């Protein structure tokens, strides 16, 4: 039974990464309406917060009652992880090549492995190290190797995005010891949504909505963005964390840039380079090693 749970956890993590990999489709469409990346984040996490709250209401209404001392934990998940990493990442891509920002974001498995070793006493095994090297090398190849010099601010933002991204695995694992996945995801996104509206220039967003001729398709797109790139993957990832080591989950999630590359080739006719193809193979190899 434990083996089945562990295998199911791995499947959930991989599914989450696949849904995250589809984000480019929705971001490009919303950018066409005039929203900037931070505003897209606000729309995404707000829709997710509303849906997760609805799921919690029907599945576990008593889950809205949490211990006051755990508010800090959910603030860490919502602000310190979800909101912090997205702001860092989307700011980084404005001052450096997208490929470089993506590589720095996917230092997250390294951060997770180090934090998990300290917080949970997880062993840094040889198998994990090999998978980590393969996965990170694959991300470098898939994202592309930029020859441009990285500004110090960009480097700090990129590493910050990886740290914030990895923090979800650590804090999420802590929260799951006391609360169900429905409680964890609902409160995480409620805090993230509240924080996002402080930094997203809401007045400008209202003007964009007001001048949109066909509002219904835009609202539908916003809802789908929240469901497909936040609700489904974060629920899968949180469920997966219940039976998967945080460090292992972080490495498995590196499938995301591989999926994004494949979607780019299929949906946007982007070229698949030899480097990208080798990178995809390396990421898959890392996932296979961890799944055994």
Number of structural units classed as domains: 1
- From N to C, what is the helix and strand string? HHHHHHHHHHHHHH
What number is the mean pLDDT?
Answer: 86
Low-confidence stretches: none
Shape: globular
Task: Tell me what you see in this structure.
The structure is a single chain. This protein is mainly α. The protein has one domain. The chain is built from 14 helices and no strands. The model has no long low-confidence stretch (mean pLDDT 86).
Concise overview:
The protein is mainly α. 79% of the residues lie in helices and 0% in strands.
Summarize the topology:
Blueprint: H1 2-20, H2 23-32, H3 37-59, H4 71-92, H5 98-105, H6 108-119, H7 126-143, H8 152-176, H9 181-199, H10 202-211, H11 215-241, H12 246-252, H13 255-268, H14 274-291
